[in-house]
Amino acid sequence: MSTRPRRAAVAAFALLSAASPLAAQRGVPPWERRAEPTFAVGGAGLYAGIRGSEAGRVRDGYGFDVHAAVGVSAFALAGGYQRSVQALRDTDTELTLQGPYVEPRVALAPGGSFTPYLTGRVAFLRQKAEGDVVTVSGSTRTSVGGGLGLLVSLGPAIHLDLAAQYTRFDVQQDTRRGDGALVRAGLLFGFDRWGR
Asked: Do the domain assignments include residue 73?
């Protein structure tokens, strides 16, 4: 065997040897992974887009999200508070949706530099419509959604947290609910071992 093929074979063997433990770990189902509980707190900016409610009168809006979470193995449960503000088209009225939520998450790969996860959310949002003429506070409405997220490690126990969800907003502008998107981008502190 010539020198170049021998070096290529050695390099390939070394690469496969190094990748094997990671591949084996990624092959472990989430419910079979074991880890001590790990905790995290985070904050993020929100984009909330609502479609299909009163012929699209609700404009896209922005807000924030703060939460705390506990994770065991590949599973985690977060609870927090969200707030977003949207304008109504052709009016001077702003629509505020704010309230608590719970969000289960499942890591799709062991904790590392990149940890993708499945996420769902149930939020209990109080609606407030405010303009120059009138201010109306509505009852608590329900928002339900699900989607994908990604944790990107920035350092020990510091992560960039990105998530996008399809959401059903129960907006009291007519008898219909609004379909939409909820996008989150922020920082998460903790979860050093989550998903392992």
From this structure: yes
Q: What's the rounded Cα separation, in Å, for the pair 30 and 82?
A: 28
pLDDT tens-digit readout, 135-149: 566 667 788 899 999
Structural domain of 83: 33-190
Residue 60: inside a domain, yes or no? yes
Degrees, nearest 5: CA angle 25-27-33? 60
Question: Is 16 a member of any domain?
Answer: no
| Tens-place pLDDT, residues 67-84 | 999 998 889 999 999 999
Please classify residue 3 by burial: count the beta carbons closer than 10 Å to its beta carbon, then call 0-12 exposed, 13-18 middle and 19+ buried. Answer: exposed
**DSSP helix/strand/coil, 118:** strand
CATH number for the domain that contains residue 138:
2.40.160.20
Q: How many domains does the chain have?
A: 1
Mean pLDDT, residues 100-106 = 95
The DSSP secondary-structure symbol of 31 reads: G
Supply the pTM of this predicted model: 0.73
Residue with tokens 């209990």: 124
C-alpha 35/C-alpha 28 separation (Å) is: 13
Across the range 27-42, mean pLDDT stands at: 71
Cβ atoms < 10 Å from Cβ of 91? 13
* Inside any domain, residue 173: yes
Chain-centroid distance, C-alpha 141: 20
